[in-house]
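Example record for the data management plan.
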Amino acid sequence: MATQDVREILGNRPRKKLGEIAGPETWWVERQQALEHAGYMLRPRYRPDWTPSWAGTNKLPLNFEDGHRQLVRFDQHPNDRANDVSLSLMESPSC
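Corresponding structural encoding:
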């Protein structure tokens, strides 16, 4: 099967720009305000009004703290009380 045929089958997905919010991060952006109301504060990158700190520069996003994706895991342990939850920063491979 030719490469062009595969692209036609799968469709041309738009590529995300380096440093853009992508994948599982959007879940956190959508819940940031509720988490803040509950007493948690996520990185500026996950706030709805976030503007990349590299915007308007000629520098790469990876030169800035908010240019790095970080995976965050939400755990609620089944044997714990309903309000016992934890947010954990997970190690992630370079993006």
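Summary line stored alongside the record: Residues 14 and 22 are 12 Å apart (CA to CA).
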